[in-house]
Amino acid sequence: MGVGKARVDGRWRITLPAGARGNLKPGDEVVVEEHGDVIVIRKAMDPLKVFHEVVLRVEDRELALKDASEAKHIYGALKE
């Protein structure tokens, strides 16, 4: 799905078209990925913010704050 075009300037910069900015704000960090001919620019996630969101969803807060190696014995873990 295209939302506009951008031109690379002499210093390898682009300006994101307004329709592609989504919830980005000046100063936000983005991740640039290359997949063949496709370049994907996405907002970088803040791991600490994601962690706090996950912790808030866990019913047993004490267990959520325990060491991961201890918790894996309670819930079980799979090797990848």
What distance lies between the first and last C-alpha atoms, to the nearest angstrom? 34 Å
What is the helix/strand order? EEHHH
SS field, number of helical segments: 3
Which regions contain 5 or more consecutive residues with pLDDT less than 50? none
Biggest sheet, strands in spatial order?
1-2
Q: What level of helicity do the residues show?
A: 25-40%
Mean pLDDT across all residues, rounded? 80
Tell me briefly what this model is.
The chain is built from 3 helices and 2 strands; from the N terminus they run E-E-H-H-H. It is elongated and about 55 Å long.
Descriptive notes:
The protein is an alpha+beta fold. The chain has 2 domains: 1-44; 45-80, no CATH class. The chain is built from 3 helices and 2 strands, in the order E-E-H-H-H. A hairpin with a 2-residue loop joins strand 1 (30-35) and strand 2 (38-43). The mean pLDDT is 80.
List the topology elements.
Blueprint: E1 30-35, E2 38-43, H1 47-57, H2 61-65, H3 68-75
Antiparallel strand pairs: 1-2
